[in-house]
Structure formats: C-alpha cells, structure tokens
Amino acid sequence: MQPANGTEGLRTAGPGERWVLRVRQTDGSASDLVGWLVGIDRNDGSDGAGEEVAVVDGAVDPAVAGDEAPRWRVPLTDVVVARRAPAARGGPDVGRTPPDVLERLGVEAWAVELEPLGDWTLRAASGFTGRANSCLAVGDPGLPVPEAAAAIEAYAAAHGIAPMAQVVTGSDEDAALRAAGWAETYVATDVLATRLADLLGDRPADPRVGVDEELTDAWRAAFDAYRSSDVDPAVVTRLLDGRRPRAFARVEVDGEVVAVARGHLSGGWLGVAGVWTRPEHRRQGLGTAVVLALAGWAARRGARWCYLQVETANGPAHGAYAALGFVHHHRYHYLAP
C-alpha cells in the first residue's frame, strides 16, 4: 500500500514530473516546495547507505537575466505530504486574453527593427516574413488613421520594404484602414492557443529533443533548409536570436538536426514559431516533440499559456494542433495601400 504522504510515488516517478512537497522545517512548521523531480538520491551519494533525498529543480525567473533553476535536496523523512502537480501552472481560459493584448505580447517574439506609432508598432526586417515587416495595427495610433497610414508608407519606404499593416480580422483598425483605401494582401493567419497544463498533460519528456537557449549553427542550418531566403543572413540571425527569453528545440539524427522549433516568452505566454521537420523524418512525431519540449521549457519559467500562428488555409496543420488541444483564438490578415 502506498504511504499516505505520497513519498512512495516519488520513488517511482519519472524525471521531469512536477511535484508539490510539503516539507517539515526545523521549527516544526511546514512549507510547500514546488518543482520538477530530478530523481531520488542518497545524502551521502552512495548506493547502499544514507538517507534518501528527493532532488528537485525549482522554477527559473525569466525576469532575471542569467537566472538558473535552484536545486533542492529534500530528505524523504522531512516530507509531510507529496503529490503530483500539473505539468504547468494553471490559469484562466485562453479566451480571457483579448486578441489585441495577445498580439502586443507577441511583438518582440519575431522582430528586428521596432518603432512605436502610438499603440501601433512599425516593424522592419529587410522583407523577411510579413510579420516582421508590417505595422502591427492594434489600438490607437495617436493620430487620424489616414495620417497613420501615410506614416506606415513613409516608414516602409525608408526601410526598403513594402507597406503593410497587420490587423485583427474584423477589428476597428481593420475597418478604419479599409476606409482609408487599404485592401487585403498576403495570407490570412489563424492564432491558435492553449493552456500549457493542458498541452503538456501527463506526457513524459521526449528524450529525442534538446532545448538550447542559444542559437546554434546546426539549428540555424535546419531553419535555413526550411525557410531559405535571399535576405542578408545577418538580418535573419538578428530575428531568430531576437529578444530574450527565447529557446531553440531540436532533434538530431546521426549528427544532423532534423526537426526544429523556436519559442519566446512574454507575459506568461509561450509563442512557438519555426516548427519544421525534414521531409524524410516526418510522421515520427518529431514536430509534436519539439513543441512539447518548448512547452516544458516555458513551464519551468512560470508560463501558463501557449500560442502559435498557422496559415488559415493550412488544414493539415490545423488538424495536428487541434489534436494537441489548441483552439482558435483569433485571425489576422494584412492590408496594403
């Protein structure tokens, strides 16, 4: 029979599981410790003697540059109660976050040059991707919309890119720019979202996946195979390297990176982009594996939700993400003069 305090469950738990331990303090009180189980060890490091201890990693604070996860060694005899916790912190339903708020949170996730225009944000990256080379038009630009439209055109001309505005479909900004003579261009995109706790569920960590917090040459080579471009490679590097905290998930086979994804954290949200698997390695679950690895990385940094963008017309991708629990949050498209 499993002991009432749950420590037997700790002994059989898998590495990476999230647990809550109520730990007895020296003054007789108790406090809760929440973290990810590394394993069960002995306090003297030997195999045959010594007190059993649970080795647990705490969360990383993404607001502190270079912060590392604390690691605790908790004697099992000090554990009053142990119970398995959800893989990530809970939180309100993703629908509680308005589209304009989520779009603003994602501004720095995929950007090179940024310049404010009231609440709007002008963006440029030498033409590499629509999202990084359009004005995010959400909120009040601080001047009449026709004048804001002219400012977008001037900014685009100065940066050698085509003038475009990204708007939430059906929003006031969408209607106002259309009234100013702008029309839909480029591809419509759906933003899908889910809670990290729901995404991770009880799925164990996939040992095939590694997550780096620095952009490596091998990861970059795989990304270039996925999205080749004649844009200056240094600009693409600036976009991918981006603004911290961000991470790069990868799967290697015979020394070659065959699946990648990139994650960025902002306001408790993980933004996932660049999910790709080499064609000869598809249908092995690698795309799912890299997304889940980033979700685990984000959960250890206090994130609660995840979003990603999928072209509206990409039915297979929609089906795959729906199977993981992602739901439609909102749609955006681009307008041009």
TrEMBL record:
Residues 209-337 form the N-acetyltransferase domain. The keyword Transferase applies. It holds the Pfam family Rv0428c_C. The keyword Transferase applies. PROSITE patterns: GNAT. Keywords: Transferase. Gene3D superfamilies: 3.40.630.30. InterPro entries: Acyl_CoA_acyltransferase, GNAT_dom, Rv0428c-like_C. One of its GO terms (molecular function) is acyltransferase activity, transferring groups other than amino-acyl groups. This is GNAT superfamily N-acetyltransferase. It comes from Microlunatus antarcticus. The lineage of its organism: Bacteria, Bacillati, Actinomycetota, Actinomycetes, Propionibacteriales.
